[in-house]
């Protein structure tokens, strides 16, 4: 009788009133387990310091190991740019030799039939000098070598600049990956909130006898599926943070909250990007500089065919103490000293070296041709990469506009579906479908916005718009 009374009461009462004020009998944990409230935040979005993109780039430029190693290469290349390394300055060497001898001496001659003998005769020598050499002509090779050293340093600077640009692009992508994964966690939290409402409504309907228990179990299964997806998404967010921390050169366990959202610029033009690539791209600039280095190498080989003329000079001091001399039959010691300057001119003319210079010059021409081919290849690769990135950029902008409009429809659809479900006008399956549609739309919007930003970042990296100048 009580069940029939409740069923008659449901038929005669307004549906909205029943949906908003269900009569819920007491439930025991043994028969109906309670769902865990979803008001608490997931572990991965706990309180942590905020990190902006600008701060992340600053930290990366200071701490990233790839950039730091590349800057050390620049220092090495710049240290090599000296006139002494190019052979334009004289070289001065100091030498000193100190030697001692101890000999047994026996001396005889026709005029002295009796030999003169001595044991342990001591002598010593001191030789010291300063020698200077200075090449004054080598076919202008020394000047070519200096220009080549400067060009090599410029090439290394461009390589370091390219490393910085690419690292900043990687940091930007990694940062917005964290933003995307954190946004998906919010989407799953919203799905859990709706799922909790569905469980409460389904349980209320089952308690008053207008709903089946299977609907409650299905709602809980769907709820647990969403919780499982949330846990997996928490792992994805943690992985994204570890990757970003690695690029920033800091502890992988350091937690943070992204303070910036994904904002896509919509005003990048193809011609502007293409022109900026030709003028500013560091990889292209490095390839151009490398053609100059190859030209200097060829000139150095040609300079080796000319005569080399050098100046030499020195100052020496020599002392010889000879304790092995006889004066008559007595052993005496003689001391001699030399002190003075020496100077002269040295000239060498290459005549024949087994045709090695011909071989070296041919190889240098081949290397010069290779550098030109590498320049053309680099330019073609950059243009292809820019064309691909720009096509993706345009495509993602169109999809972004579509998904931004679609998410409004999906949210409105879920709100209507949830209200209809409260009123008993919608099946649980239809509500679940509306819920999944909204979650998919939220994730698609995050993915499309991230991909559009990623394409924009590639275009800015190619046009050297991420890092204008690096020390």
From TrEMBL:
Annotated signal peptide: 1-19
SUPFAM superfamilies on file: Outer membrane efflux proteins (OEP)
Any Pfam family: OEP
Domain of life: Bacteria
Residue stretches of biased makeup (Polar residues): 110-123
Compartment(s) where it occurs, according to its Swiss-Prot or TrEMBL record: Cell outer membrane
Region (Disordered): 85-123
Keywords, in A-Z order: Cell outer membrane, Coiled coil, Membrane, Signal, Transmembrane, Transmembrane beta strand, Transport
Membrane-spanning intervals of the chain: none
Coiled-coil features, chain-numbered ranges: 372-403
Keyword Oxidoreductase: no
Record family assignment: Belongs to the outer membrane factor (OMF) (TC 1.B.17) family.
Protein name: TolC family protein
């Amino acid at each position: 009788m009580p069940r029939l009374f409740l069923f008659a009461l449901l038929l005669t009462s307004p549906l909205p009133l029943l949906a908003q004020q269900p009569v819920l009998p007491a439930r025991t944990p043994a028969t109906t387990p309670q769902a865990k409230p979803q008001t608490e935040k997931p572990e991965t979005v706990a309180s942590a310091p905020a990190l902006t993109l600008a701060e992340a780039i600053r930290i990366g430029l200071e701490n990233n190991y790839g950039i730091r190693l590349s800057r050390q290469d620049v220092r090495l290349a710049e240290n090599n740019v000296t006139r002494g390394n190019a052979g334009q300055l004289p070289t001065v060497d100091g030498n000193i030799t100190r030697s001692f001898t101890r000999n047994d001496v026996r001396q005889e001659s026709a005029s002295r039939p009796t030999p003169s003998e001595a044991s342990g005769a001591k002598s010593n020598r001191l030789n010291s000098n300063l020698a200077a050499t200075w090449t004054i002509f080598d076919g202008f090779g020394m000047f070519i070598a200096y220009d080549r050293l400067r060009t090599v340093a410029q090439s290394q600077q461009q390589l370091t600049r390219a490393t910085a640009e690419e690292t900043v692009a990687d940091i930007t992508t990694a940062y917005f990956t964290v933003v995307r994964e954190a946004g998906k966690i919010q989407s799953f939290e919203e799905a859990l909130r709706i799922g909790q409402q569905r469980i409460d409504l389904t349980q209320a309907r089952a308690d008053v006898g207008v709903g089946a228990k299977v609907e409650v179990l299905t709602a809980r299964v769907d709820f647990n599926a969403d919780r499982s997806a949330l846990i997996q998404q928490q792992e994805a967010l943690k992985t994204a943070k570890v990757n970003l921390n690695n690029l920033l050169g800091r502890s992988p366990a350091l937690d943070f909250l992204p303070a910036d959202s994904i904002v896509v610029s919509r005003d990048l033009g193809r011609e502007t990007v293409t022109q900026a690539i030709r003028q500013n791209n560091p990889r292209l600039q490095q390839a151009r500089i490398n053609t100059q280095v190859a030209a200097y190498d060829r000139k150095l080989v040609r300079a080796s065919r000319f005569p080399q003329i050098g100046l030499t000079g020195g100052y020496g001091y020599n002392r010889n103490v000879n304790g092995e001399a006889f004066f008559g039959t007595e052993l005496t010691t003689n001391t001699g000293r030399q002190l003075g300057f020496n100077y002269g001119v040295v000239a060498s003319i290459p005549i024949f070296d087994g045709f090695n210079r011909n071989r070296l010059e041919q190889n240098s021409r081949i290397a010069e041709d290779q550098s030109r081919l590498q320049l053309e290849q680099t330019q073609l690769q950059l243009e292809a990469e820019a064309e691909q990135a720009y096509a993706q950029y345009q495509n993602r902008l169109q999809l972004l506009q579509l998904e931004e409009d679609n998410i409004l429809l999906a949210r409105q659809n879920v709100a209507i579906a949830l209200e209809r479900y409260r009123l008993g006008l919608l099946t649980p399956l239809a509500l679940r479908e509306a819920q999944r549609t909204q979650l998919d739309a939220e994730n698609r919007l995050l993915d499309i916005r991230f991909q559009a930003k990623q394409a924009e970042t590639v275009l800015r990296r190619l046009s050297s718009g991420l890092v204008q100048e690096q020390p």
